[in-house]
């Protein structure tokens, strides 16, 4: 993930005095109605009962590509408004996210030139019980006001104990690796006992991927199950490098190699 480094500079343009967390507001869609909370109370919002504050449609000649992405982690489809957002959803699924809410709320805040509004891209419920608010935009498309909006979102998230990140891009091998692994993320029937054989072959430490699949009764089928175990992190490898037969694979939690 490539984070955005300009938030601290943009923060200087925010007006954050005189109980700003009480004056800044966030509008949510709850049970079909708009409900507005001050930023200081965001931690008490019934997030799981909310709906996206903004819908999206498909039409010809639009400059972005919206769609729906199925997540194994949540068991349903989630909306995205660009290919960059789709990539983020894929990464979140790999991280075993618990919940994803696109366009969660409309933030209204004050900066040195007046008032502005912003809708973050995703609010994610993580496995540790925390929340992660995300803004997603390629670095070359982030303007001065965009940076101020991202900085305001970070302050709103911090006010209620949420994490916040702006994703500006990904290393190419990470996305290609996740895309390859995602092909086998759904449940697989293991009639040949490939998964126990793979786990046993990797139990003593790093082994080359090509050698690992040879430990199964049918290596061609064993490859699919090995990728399945990698996606669900029962096996591990270096996601920063392309996955190939020479890639080293180790059992989940094996720390000596690290």
Number of β-strand runs: 15
CATH architecture level-2 label of the largest domain: 3-Layer(aba) Sandwich
Q: Which class of the largest domain in CATH terms?
A: Alpha Beta
Largest sheet: 5 strands, mixed
**What's the helix-strand series?**
EHHEEEEEHEEEEEHEHHEHHEE
- Structural domains: how many: 2
Question: By helix and strand content, what is the structural category?
Answer: alpha+beta
CA-CA gap between termini: 20 Å
Number of helices: 8
Q: How large a portion of the residues is in β-strands, by DSSP E?
A: 25-35%
Strand order, main sheet: write it out.
Answer: 1-12-11-10-7
CATH topology assignment of the largest domain: Trna Endonuclease, Chain: A, domain 1
State the helical fraction: 25-40%
What does the average pLDDT come to?
92
Shape: elongated
Radius of gyration: 21 Å
**Which regions have little confidence, pLDDT < 50, spanning 5+ residues?**
none
In terms of topology, how is this protein built?
Layout (H helix, E strand, L loop, with lengths): L1 E2 L3 H5 L8 H4 L1 E6 L2 E6 L11 E2 L15 E5 L4 E5 L2 H12 L4 E4 L3 E6 L2 E5 L3 E4 L5 E6 L7 H16 L3 E7 L2 H11 L11 H8 L5 E2 H5 L5 H13 L3 E2 L11 E4 L7
Parallel strand pairs: 11-12
Antiparallel strand pairs: 1-12, 2-3, 2-4, 2-8, 5-6, 7-10, 8-9, 10-11, 13-15, 14-15
